[in-house]
Amino acid sequence: MNIQKGAEIIVRDWVRLRGRERLLIVSSRRYQAEMQALLNAAQKISSHVELLVLDELSMYVGTYFNEREDAFDAYDAIIGAAEYSLITTKAVKRAVSRRKRFLSLPLSTNDGNSMLTYEFLRVDTAKSKIMAAAMLDYYQSASRIDIQTSLGTDLHLSMKGRRAGFFNGCCRDGRGLSSASVEAYVSIVENATEGTLILDGSMGYIGMVDSPVEIRLHNGRITFIENNRSGRKLREYLGRFQDERMLHASEFGIGLNTYSHCRGCCYIEDESAYGTFHIGFGRNIALGGVQDAVGHFDLVAHNADIYVDNQMIMEQGRIMILEPHIYI
């Protein structure tokens, strides 16, 4: 798939831009080709399209939009096509509360290819919505999530008082808020996660682990990261934020995109891959949580047994309530 085709999917099918609507594309010069492709696609529909180019902010772009809550007030729809996700910022929360549409489209990749060329953008949004609805039924009134894997993951999460949701790219399906990450998610209680995660997938923006990493959590906070090559990379990455809140588990998600694969090339694809699960850390205010950290990142793992209030919803990475119909 070429960049222009990917941009057209984003603007036409996900944002569903309409004539005379005002669209803002937030990006950086690093993604000049993607900005131009999105601009071309949008201008075929509306003449009210603007670019906001933010450079030099790197991972702190979220802080920028926390400090400028009214940044999106003048627009009907916003595409956050920067390197890092904006979805958990105060500006996004305000925009969605005012019935605007926001699509999180973080463009960071590790393989030199544009994210707009990735095949996972071809996801069937209607099918993923049905999948998510089946998943969310199990979360209603639930208070606890337990996760185990054969490698030794043994995690216990609280979702008491939290409402689950889903992303499938389509802003309309997400009641105005969506992400390129196709998943069922819930903001978990920030000081309640206990246990051990054996990370065998992706470390978000950092890429795939070289070998599994043991990570321990107590009172919701990371207290230990194994001292191997990938563990050292993760510790160094977290240290760059200089924010202790980035150590707190704040989200649980299950990937629902059957076009995605966890390859470490693009963290959005990694956490979307069907049958994976991820634990998000840091800011979660736009997901229904209360933690306002300087950023957000996810750790992706495989082949889990997952229980919601003692009901098994996943066994060895297979979502039991969806199969065998998932590939139809």
Kindly list the characteristics that best describe this protein.
5-stranded parallel sheet; 328 residues; alpha+beta
Rough outline: globular
Largest beta-sheet details: 8 strands, antiparallel
Assembly classification: single chain
Catalogue the unreliable spans: none
Tally of DSSP helical segments: 7
Question: What is the residue-averaged pLDDT?
Answer: 92
**Fraction in beta strands:** 25-35%
Find the structural class using helix and strand composition: alpha+beta
Task: Spell out the helices and strands N to C.
Answer: HEHEHEHEHEEEEEEEEHEHEEEEE
Gyration radius (Cα, Å) is 18 Å
Spatial strand sequence of the major β-sheet: 12-11-10-6-5-16-17-18
Tell me what you see in this structure:
With 328 residues, the protein is α+β, with helices and mostly antiparallel strands. Helix content is 22%, strand content 27%. The chain has seven helices and 18 strands. It has an eight-stranded antiparallel sheet, with helices on one face. The relative contact order is 0.14.
Short note summarizing the structure:
This protein has helices spanning 3-15, 32-43, 61-66, 90-97, 125-139, 229-241, 267-272; strands at residues 23-27, 49-53, 77-80, 101-104, 144-149, 154-158, 165-167, 177-179, 183-187, 194-199, 213-218, 221-225, 249-255, 277-282, 296-301, 304-308, 311-315, 318-319. By secondary structure, the protein is an alpha+beta fold.
